[in-house]
Amino acid sequence: MAAVPQEKSLSVLQRRWRKFRTLKRGWYSLVAILVMYALSLLAPLYITNKAWVVKYNGEYTFPALSGFHAATEFGQRTIGEADYRKLKQEFQEADAGNWVLLAPYPYHPNESLMRSLEGRPPHSPSRAHWLGTDNRGRDVLARLVYGFRISLTFAIGVVLLSYTLGIAVGAVLGFFGGKVDILGQRLVEIWSGLPFLYTVIIVSSLLLPSMWTLTAILAAFGWMGIAMYMRGEFYREKSKDYVAAAIAQGDSSRAIMFQQIFPNALTPLISFAPFAVVGAISSLVALDFLGFGLRPPTPSWGEMVNQGLSNIFKWHLVVFPLSALFITLMMVVFIGEAIREAFDPKVFSRLR
Amino acid sequence: MAQEGNQRKGEPLLTVKGLKVHFPVYGGILRHKVGTVKAVDGVSFRLNRGETLGVVGESGSGKTTVGRAIINLHKPMYPDVELGGEILFHTESGQVDTNGITRDEMLPLRERIQMIFQDPFSSLNPRLTVQAIIEGPMKVHMNLTAAQRKDRVLDLLDRVGLQRSYAQRYPHEFSGGQRQRVGIARALATNPDLIIADEPVSALDVSIQAQVINLMMELQREFGLTYLFIAHDLSVVYHICDRIAVMYLGNLVEIGTADQVYKSPRHPYSKALLSAVPQPDPRSSNKGRIRLEGDIPTPMAKPSGCGFRTRCPIAKPSCAQDVPELRDVGNGQMVACPFV
Ligand SMILES: Nc1ncnc2c1ncn2[C@@H]1O[C@H](COP(=O)(O)OP(=O)(O)OP(=O)(O)O)[C@@H](O)[C@H]1O
Ligand code: SF4
Ligand SMILES: [Mg+2]
């Protein structure tokens, strides 16, 4: 038989992915968020008070990569880590062939710059500190970038964890049905009735939460919706003949749940994910804002928004964190909107 | 395998004795049992190698439920189901009663029994390629490498009259008839002995129906297959079946050779069902036409005695007492009515 050149067949997801890419607003938002996240993950390389290169007495050191170097290594007479910005000045003044190449934005998000800056913090934006400093003299841009990294990592962690829990529980309830389902549903309802904020506040006051305990707490309160969605999907799909065919061919329950049904239950999961991310970012901001979130001095957006509120007349403390938050959430919502559109069986598109 | 199947033609393959499939119905806030759907209520028949047994009856008479019971689908899908009777599968090493055995015990037999489903749209997983769908049973039962499976899938596609290039396509790219061919290829994947075909053509256009039925008959000759062929009406079944069983409300009311049941039905229900078949000869059409009054009762509240008595034109008072047994009315034609 002669091979007829054929257009490649696309799976349902592949077709939806193509459709998604034609929805420019969502697609560009996704690209932008991913690029920003990648850049923020690399921030310790270029937003840092550690120098890129130090040449001292004929030897080269790369502190941004190699980490801690005591001040005494470079002839400074202070205790603790070297202060590279000062070192650069000192080397220039001494003019002895030693030099320092600082990072492009040479400040650390937790570093107080009060001693090197004139006046009392918060300082307004300047050439050195593009977005100014906060009430403890820490660079706002550096904190925003590190805060973005934390927010998104946290949100992704919460979504992954709550999805895992929700999918597992929902799949079991929907697939096995019967008494398991009835009992399970009641337990999920009871669990949903627990007051989220109280629990977080109690746990925070007992534990002084780390990022990971916070992730776990938020996921523990965020999986029920997904579980009920999954339960519905599994329940509906289970009665279709392809599942009967899978049983008839001898597939195990696990193979049926995860190889046969699960790919058919992805739609609500994927279309809900961006909104779950929005929820997780907002929750973290809210908790930080209330002071029950990440422990200080972690650069967190909630804490920065809080500073804006208590320094309402320092415009840069109000405008920058709020716009960063607003723009990020908006882009994630755009992604969500486009995904929903791409998964919509209707052909005509509103967003283009 | 094919030759073996043809050689042993006529030996018993499956004996069903007193099969019962009852679905409990739950209701109320406490979800307690409020009733039972007696979908199948004492069905017995025998199926020989290489033959085709047709099962006909109105919608809701329990045909699908019988087919699914034979392939042991009810327990995994509805754990609460109440099963009764025996489904004896004849193997080289004796008989196995598969009714209600565990999934693990059933697994080796699944290689030999396959099913073609009524709805070609929901019976193929929309997320899998044709290749993945057809090789599903091979993965479980046959010890083949990926390349061997691929070859076998291509062979099967040839067999069922589909292009080999379709292997990498998804179900949504096909018409109903093509999908049903994919379903047939999947059913053939492990070289089964018995194929349960649950109204395999009812969902298809009339022009396609004949093609699919002819394909199934060809495959039967080639592979020595045994069919349990479920259908709505007698005319499709007469064409393909050796014997025909007529079901009504969870019971068999008549069973015999295709000619016996089609040409000289004895049970009042079979007569009514048959008179509803359009006749090719217009003069004979309305002559003995029997119209059934009313609807089929629900299997949740079956009439006592003969299930058919609420609609039977010759019902007697005694029909409310005992459930009539199938009895031989000559030449092996069995009828569940003492008054014919
Ligand atoms: N899982 C179930 N739970 C409760 N009742 C069921 C279940 N499956 C089937 N039934 C009932 O059992 C009866 C027989 O159903 P079945 O599907 O076997 O009929 P059928 O003869 O195949 O009809 P059709 O020609 O419409 O396919 C029907 O009344 C149906 O409602
Ligand atoms: S047993 Fe009675 S009701 Fe049933 S078919 Fe015969 S005559 Fe009719
Ligand atoms: Mg049916």
Descriptive overview:
The complex is a heterodimer of chains A (352) and B (340). Chain A is 62% helix and 3% strand. The N terminus of chain A is likely disordered. The longest helix of chain A is centred in the middle third of the chain and has 37 residues. Chain A starts with 11 loop residues before the first helix and ends in a 9-residue tail after the last helix. In chain A, helix 13 packs across helix 14. Chain A has a 3-stranded antiparallel sheet. Chain A is mainly α. Chain A has a domain of 202 residues: MetI-like fold (Orthogonal Bundle), CATH 1.10.3720. Chain B is an alpha/beta fold and 340 residues long. Chain B has a single domain, classed as P-loop containing nucleotide triphosphate hydrolases (Rossmann fold). Helix content of chain B is 31%, strand content 25%. Chain B is built from 11 helices and 12 strands. In chain B, strands 6-7-8-3-9-10-12-11 form an 8-stranded mixed sheet, with helices on both faces. In chain B, strands 2-1-4-5 form a 4-stranded antiparallel sheet. In chain B, helix 5 runs parallel beside helix 7. The longest helix of chain B has 18 residues. Classes of the chains: A mainly alpha (352), B alpha/beta (340). Chains A and B meet through helix 11 of A and helix 4, strand 6 and helix 5 of B. Magnesium ion (MG) binds next to helix 2 of chain B. Iron/sulfur cluster binds next to loops of chain B.
